[in-house]
Specification:
It is built from 19 helices and nine strands. The protein is an alpha/beta fold. Among the domains are: about 70 residues, no CATH class; about 120 residues, 2-Layer Sandwich (Alpha-Beta Plaits), CATH 3.30.70; about 150 residues, 3-Layer(aba) Sandwich (Rossmann fold). Strand 6, helix 17 and strand 7 form a beta-alpha-beta unit. The longest helix is centred in the N-terminal third of the chain and has 54 residues. It is elongated and about 125 Å long. The two termini are about 30 Å apart. The N terminus is likely disordered.
Length: about 500
């Protein structure tokens, strides 16, 4: 009774499937549209020739001139040239503005970085906080001597390495190791401590001068004490590498003084910060101007109306008619074929028209090889592309096992190609979900007598169909014949 209902119920038209059946004919529609446009356009040209002064055409051709055009056509072309020039100018200007915007934003990042660094220096630098008119200073001078003596009457004279000793002290006392050692005692960064220490040498007088600065007399003195300890620490190294020498402290004085150079340096730092902030402000203002320039350019282009095309000539109308007619003709043929062929399109069709549930959907050869527009249409239609076939095959096999666990022999049949059917059977076996079960593969029971014999041996039957070849009528007939032999049709594996 159920079979009778399935066979005799009115077949509903799936509008979605119909749409895609037509859409897949896009190449044929394009070709037909072009051919019909050319044919109808030619007809329109011939007909339109009646409206043109034949004598004017003959004269133009004889003189190698263009065929006369209407004033409306000429005006339209001139207006379009002007409009395209405006578009080009807009695009060029906007591109330039955007490039400037990108550069401006990068410059703002750098400017803010410079401001942050300058502010950090102002906040942390001790020298920047000193009062240039009342600077606490500690100064110590040393006289450096070696065993150098001039030997009268001798052509050879021992080298005087006093300058090398002075240079060595200058280098070692201002080295990273020396400054960082002292800075650590004050929990201060090296770069800020370096600003509070000055070491100078005078090769003529052989004097080494160490000067330290501080926020108060105690700080300046403590830094000096640590510098004198460093001098003792590096003495042995200098004697080993340069030569023996004597150091004599000539003086040490602690005082307050006025340092005009420090005042100027502090002012330069403040002026630099003002300059950096002004630069950032200018960049921000420039950014706003550039954004407004882009907005103005867009508004100017939008305000310029695109010239209206002159009234279509008869030829153009015929071209359009031919183009549309070509599309409609191919689409009409596609609709008729869709209705007449009765092909299986979607899985939902099988249950409603044939009473057969779909166990799973796999990609057919056409779907696997689809590229470009065809692949996009398949994706929109939700057809498989083959990438998930392996997992779907395992799912189909697992479904069969769970629905008929007692079945030992399973027949796989259908009206699809023999190699396709064989490949499906092998894939189901390879999934591992049907281990211990015997899968027989045979062609359509409507076409193969061998399938009739095979059907007698099995417990359950699985149909296979392909949207490219299988019809609803064929599936209904296969199902009915199998059931007439008392065989249960478990479901269908659909290739789409």
């Amino acid at each position: 009774m159920d079979n009778y209902k399935a066979e005799n119920q009115e077949q509903e038209i799936d509008l979605v499937s119909l749409f895609f059946a037509v859409a897949h004919r896009y190449k044929q529609m394009a070709a037909a549209a072009v051919i019909c446009a050319v044919l109808f356009g030619g007809f329109g040209v011939v007909k339109g020739m009646q409206l043109i002064d034949n004598r004017a055409i003959d004269e133009a051709i004889a003189n190698g001139e263009e065929v006369p055009r209407t004033s409306a056509e000429q005006q339209y072309e001139e207006d379009m040239v002007e409009y395209r020039e405006a578009q080009t100018k807009h695009d060029t200007d906007v591109t330039s503005y955007k490039q400037q915007l990108n550069q401006n934003e990068a410059d703002q990042v750098r400017a803010q970085f410079d401001i942050d660094n300058a502010q950090e220096y102002i906040d942390k630098s001790v020298r920047q906080k000193l009062d240039p008119y009342n600077v606490y200073t500690s100064e110590t001078r040393f006289y450096i001597t070696t065993d150098y003596k001039i030997m009268p009457g001798m052509d050879y004279q021992n080298p005087d390495y006093t300058s090398a000793v002075l240079s060595a002290y200058n280098s070692l006392l201002t080295s990273h190791e020396s400054i960082i050692t002292i800075a650590d005692q004050f929990s201060m960064e090296e770069r800020y401590m370096r600003e509070l220490i000055s070491v100078s040498v005078d090769n003529d007088t052989r004097l080494l001068t160490i000067t330290t600065y501080g926020e108060d007399a105690d700080e300046a003195g403590r830094i000096m004490d640590l510098m004198l300890k460093r001098m003792e620490a590096v003495r042995e190294n200098i004697e080993t590498t340069v030569g023996d020498h004597n150091t004599k402290q000539v003086s040490r004085s602690d005082s307050t003084t006025v340092l005009t150079w420090l005042r100027d340096s502090q002012q330069d730092t403040r002026d630099n910060m003002i300059g950096l902030k002004n630069n950032l402000t200018d960049l921000q203002n420039n950014h706003e101007l550039l954004e407004k320039s882009i907005e103005t350019a867009d508004q100017d282009l939008a305000a310029q109306e695109k010239p209206a095309e002159p009234k279509q000539s008869g030829a153009k109308k015929f071209v359009l008619i031919g183009f549309l007619l070509g599309i409609v003709a191919v689409a009409g043929v596609a609709v008729v074929r869709f209705l007449m062929e009765d092909k299986v399109c979607v899985s939902e069709d099988l249950q409603s028209s044939c009473g057969v549930g779909v166990l799973g959907t796999l990609a057919n050869a056409a779907s696997k090889s689809a590229k470009g527009m065809d692949a996009s249409l398949n994706k929109m239609e939700k057809r498989p592309d083959g990438s998930a076939d392996a997992e779907m095959t395992r799912l189909i096999a697992a479904t069969i096992r769970n629905r008929v666990p007692e079945a030992e022999n399973i027949l796989l049949t259908g009206d699809i190609a023999g190699d396709q059917l064989t490949a499906l059977g092998e894939a189901l076996k390879a999934s591992g979900e049907l281990d211990g079960k015997n899968i027989l593969v045979s062609g359509s029971i409507l076409q193969s007598s061998a399938t009739v014999s095979e059907a007698a041996k099995v417990d359950v039957v699985v149909l296979a169909a392909d949207c490219a070849v299988s019809t609803h009528a064929s599936l209904r007939a296969q199902k009915a014949k199998l059931e007439s032999f008392g065989k249960k049709v478990l479901g269908c594996v659909l290739y789409a």
